[in-house]
Amino acid sequence: MKTIQDYLNSGAVDIAPLLSLVLKKSNVELITHGDYCLTPTEKQTLSEFIQQRTDGVPFSYISGTKGFYHLDFKVTADTLIPRPETELLIDISLDLFPKDVSCQLLDLGTGSGIIAITLADKKPHWQVMATDYSHAALEVAKSNATTNIEFAQGSWFEAVNSQCFDLIISNPPYIEENDSYLEDLTFEPISALTAGQDGLDEIRIIIDNAPNHLNKNGYLLLEHGYDQQLRIIKLLTKNFTNIQTFQDYNIKDRAILAQIKNA
Ligand SMILES: C[S@@+](CC[C@H](N)C(=O)[O-])C[C@H]1O[C@@H](n2cnc3c(N)ncnc32)[C@H](O)[C@@H]1O
After folding, report:
1. Residue of the nearest CA to atom 9 in ligand 1?
2. pLDDT band at residue 7 using 50, 70 and 90 as cut-offs
3. Atom 19 (ligand 1): residue with closest C-alpha?
């Protein structure tokens, strides 16, 4: 017979959230019901989860969900696990247009759909399109959608034909392909993470092609690696103006907003 308290004392990785997941109890309930004995089925499920977590499977792939901004998103092994840093892109976007002004928004490389879906939920009058190269990721994004969003599959702008937008956002793959940080990310899809030797292969494609898909005065907003800011500004200067840079909650350079130069 093993109680909640016995498990909490075990020191297993993420034991409290795993217990919450299996028993559908809040943290407070775990403490106030510490003497509850788990049923054989609960014990079996919990020990499988503990093993997965010990093997390094991220908690979000075990629970199948991750909170982002004000919503919960389904995530699978086909999608990147949403990162809190990416909430910065939402804050920047929400501040960009006056309250009731409409916006045609494109989220390139939507993954689980967090950027497109969060903004569509916050701004129901915006027209939102989201794309990804991965069919499987797009299926997850579609299942997460709370409002009407147009989804399209294809590599970057190939998915949108000749359409133009007021705001193009992307959190593209931007990790250098030999970065040792990747050793900690073996459970997430590599195609969502790496972008060539300098990590900028995909950002270059997006910056080069965005001018063909932006309306007059339109914006491009990109998430990027902490050490890529200056190189991205250089890539932007030919076709963009009003370049603004942003740091994340860890005071790391993380996002760039730029406005198209009008002809
Ligand atoms: C860093 S993840 C970001 C996912 C999601 N937007 C987020 O912020 O959590 C990059 C996404 O870009 C997609 N991707 C990679 N290469 C692509 C390409 N050539 N065209 C479109 N999407 C691509 C990946 O499938 C992945 O979903």
Report:
1. 82
2. very high
3. 155
Residue ranges per domain, the chain?
4-56, 79-260
Q: At what angle do helices 114-122 and 87-96 cross, to 10 degrees?
A: 40
Q: What pLDDT, in 10s, does the model give residues 94-103? A: 999 988 899 9
Q: What is the mean pLDDT of the chain?
A: 96
Residues 226 and 252: beta-carbon distance below 8 Å: yes
Query: Is this prediction's pTM over 0.70?
Result: yes
To test ligand 1's pocket by mutation, which of 85, 132, 138, 177 has the most ligand atoms within 8 angstroms of CB?
132
Q: What SS3 state is found at 257?
A: strand
Average pLDDT score over residue span 124-149 = 96
Between CA 228 and CA 235, with CA 230 as vertex, the angle to 5 degrees is: 90
Segments in 55-130 forming alpha helices (H): 59-63, 87-96, 114-122
Between β-strands 253-260 and 214-223, what pairing exists: parallel, antiparallel or unpaired? antiparallel
CATH classification code of 79-260 = 3.40.50.150
